[in-house]
Specification:
The protein folds into two domains: 84 residues; 293 residues, Outer membrane protein transport protein (OMPP1/FadL/TodX) (Porin). It has six helices and 16 strands. The strands form two sheets. A 14-stranded antiparallel barrel has the order 1-2-3-4-5-6-7-10-11-12-13-14-15-16. It has a two-stranded antiparallel ribbon with strand order 8-9.
Length: 392
């Protein structure tokens, strides 16, 4: 941890404590000081691995203070959001039902409908509301389309695109992406190595009217700020049939490849937001049964330099009827002792051949709850997905 980074975090501690003293009483101030001393200073001053755990712990402290003293959230929540801009951490949206958004995570990936139902054209939409217990928590919407050619051996086209909108408090981004790639193999219906690239334009914005500051003249809240920037992602993905037409797959991708620094400047001052390169890995297995049911195992690993790695694991069972159910866990892999565990539940239904349709319609609902060794509960996460697929 660099000295200036430590100083920045300590300044946030002072601001938090001073804000509590101004709004509440000396007792509140002393309580917060005790928390800072016991939970922050004593636990991290002997760690020098060089990541952003100081800033992460500041954010956890803010959440805990909001839980204990609800009225203080109007001062501290903006600090939480602004400090998040300083972090090297997960910046891109998360998904509970990540397999439904595989082509957003990895531009070379195949859709669930391709493996499970043999459909090579898919349209889908999703909505996610994260941290329902905190006002201004992340809200994510996606629209996507994907296609993979099935024209025999050689190189087959895979293509698509998606629209992404993500908002957290006063900050948000909207992006439109196209993706293209090739699948190399003797028969892409059963096996292939795919390489893909995605590219698009993203608008990053800060809504000044939603930033609550103590000083009316603070330049952060003086005017809206937005900036357009290009974004590129790359991915590689391999899949193959095993045994009785079961599938396994494995892939890796690097979204937000450019890792740009966005500088917002006006007559009152300037500040910057660093967009950081992410590293994703995914793997999975489909096991099909004679009664038209199947089990899907899947894994999604995420890593951002300077932040703890995270792995999600899910299992889903499609019943012979229309219903499917699933569960899973997500686990942070940091070494600070403040790791979190996410518990997933999801369920949905499928309307396809069994219902007399030539195409496939699927609806899914996912619920995600986080358990942390430090900080208050942030509330549950809700996600819905809808997809329509067919063979072209």
């Amino acid at each position: 941890m660099e000295a200036n980074e430590k100083n920045l975090c300590l300044r946030w501690i002072v601001l938090i404590s001073a804000g509590a003293q101004a709004i509440y009483s000396t007792r509140c101030f002393l309580h917060l000081t005790e928390i800072v001393y016991k939970k922050i200073i004593l636990n991290v001053t002997d760690r020098t691995t060089g990541d952003t755990r100081y800033c992460q712990l500041i954010n956890l402290l803010i959440l805990r203070v909001i839980k204990m003293y609800p009225m203080i959230k109007y001062l501290l929540l903006p600090l939480l959001l602004i400090t998040s801009l300083q972090l090297t951490a997960q910046q891109l949206p998360l998904f509970t039902q990540y397999r439904e958004n595989a082509t957003i995570i990895n531009p070379a990936a195949m859709e669930t409908d391709f493996f499970a139902y043999g459909n090579n054209f898919t349209l889908g939409a999703s909505y996610r509301s994260q941290w329902g217990g905190i006002s201004g928590g992340p809200r994510t919407q996606t629209l996507r389309g994907s296609f993979v050619g099935l024209n025999g051996g050689g190189v087959n086209l895979t293509a698509g695109g998606y629209l992404l909108n993500d908002k957290t408090g006063p900050t948000g981004l909207t992006g439109f992406y196209g993706r293209i790639g090739g699948v190399v193999g003797s028969d892409p219906e059963f096996s292939g190595l795919a390489i893909g690239i995605s590219g698009g334009m993203v608008q990053y914005r800060i809504d000044a009217d939603k930033v609550i500051v103590r000083d009316a003249g603070d330049p952060v809240a003086s005017q809206d700020n937005s900036q357009l920037y290009p974004d590129v992602g790359v991915g590689i993905y391999f899949y193959n049939t095993v045994g009785d037409d079961n599938y396994f797959y494995v892939g890796a991708s690097v979204p937000q490849l450019f890792g740009l620094n966005l500088n917002f400047t006006d007559e009152n001052g300037d500040f910057s937001v660093e967009r950081t390169r992410h590293y994703y890995g995914m793997a999975g297995y489909y096991s099909f049964f004679d009664n038209d049911s199947f089990i899907e195992l899947s894994l999604w690993g995420k890593y951002v330099p300077g932040a703890p790695a995270n792995v999600d694991f899910n299992i889903r069972y499609q019943l012979p009827a229309a219903i499917w159910i699933g569960t899973g866990l997500g686990r942070g892999l940091g070494t600070t002792g403040f790791n979190s565990t996410n518990f997933h539940l999801d369920a949905g239904f499928t309307l396809g051949e069994a219902a007399g349709f030539d195409s496939t319609i699927r609806f899914g609902y996912g619920y995600d709850y986080s358990f942390s060794s430090f900080g208050p509960p942030a509330g549950g996460t809700h996600e819905v997905n809808l997809s329509y697929s067919f063979n072209q």
